[in-house]
Amino acid sequence: MSRIKDVGPDADPETAARPTAGPTRAAAGQVRLSFRFDGEVQHGGEIDNVLFGVLAAVLDHGSIGRAAKTLGLSYRHVWGELKRWEQTLGEPLIVWAQGQRARPTPFAERLVWTERRARARMQPHIEALRADLGRVISDARDQRLQLLTVCASHDIALQVLQRHAAAVADLHLDIRFQGSADSLRVLNSRRCLVAGFHVPVLTGAAPVFANALKPLLKPGLHKLIGCSRRRQGLMVRREHAAAIESFADLCDSGLRFVNRQPGSGTRLLVDHLMHEHRFAPADIAGFDDRPEDTHVAVAAAVASGLADAGAGIEAAAIEFGLHFVPLIEEDYFLACLKPNLTHPAVVNLCALLAASRWSELLASLPGYAPASAPGDVLMMTKALPWWRFRGDKRVRIGAAAPPEAA
Questions:
Q1: What angle do CA 384, 388, 390 make, to 5 degrees?
Q2: 328 bridge partner residues
Q3: Confidence at 122, pLDDT banded by 50, 70, 90
Q4: Scanning 81, 235, 370, 391, which has its CA 20 to 30 A from the CA of 48?
């Protein structure tokens, strides 16, 4: 296909006027990952890539000149990189007109957002992989390092705890993120030492949570450890902020909703709220469309315009510049089997949670607060008040609430 004329200040007029053909789109779409050891720090879903680093800088700063200055590169170098990637991708990335600044094409803008969304969706897995690779050298050198296998519902604070534990306690948390229910199943199959799950702070019957979690937790066999308290709510694009003041507004707003995967704690919360408000899935646009697996993936989907609203934690909403509507506070617990309470790594973890530094770290995260008894082993029936209610009826989302839960 023909290329956009390169009429930048350093362009070769003959080359610019001549159409060029790049690789096929299939060839340009191949991805190869690599990693290296160096002194630079990365966090979250960050992955080095020249193209997206340059494009994001142009989008964020409004011009190639400002982007080049921010990146510490010359204008000529940045322009050359962009034109090289146009050939590789077979798509125009920059449009330029006389008397105007060069700006990204609509394709380039979509490319940046879809890449950001992909990284946001995989952020906890990238972070876990980076942590695993990061301990390769330290493991080889230090025999004192403790390993604690954790399967947990996605939580930003847990990633902070992972870095804190490695820095101050020689404790590596090998975290695998998946839904609350699935994490407890992994714990029960003895494939991890600790499982993380979260439930809202409720005092009455909660049939949705009871139906999902009671079969997976047994008093006497499972022990709960206080970890944190966090705020859940709706993440909404700012132009729709006036339309959403509560969960009930979703039904009448017509906004496209992006859901979480079945079995996740946030999906259970959404199902609980659906049950309370007597909503059916058809009442909320997008309810049964493709779900996302993490809070940051939901936030990225909303921020990129794929959806207008989604459920998640306040910290994820702030990270992506979204309006946040608080709905409920919830406790994040760590569960382990009773025999493993004396495991050295579990003892070490409880001590970390009970220390004042963990409370300070939580206080610095938007929407988080310390648990009422961080690091303590809790009575299940006191930590989960709805556990005491008997005879909870099986709940079908969209069905009328039973009298005792109405």
A1: 130
A2: 232
A3: confident
A4: 235
Amino acid at 51: L
Q: What is the reported pTM? A: 0.67
Sorted by where each starts, the structural domains of the chain and their CATH numbers stand as 13-115 (1.10.10.10), 144-405 (3.40.190.290)
Segment 164-195, tens digit of pLDDT: 998 888 898 999 999 999 999 999 999 999 99
CA quadruple 126, 127, 131, 134: dihedral positive or negative? Answer: positive
- Name 119's bridge partners: none
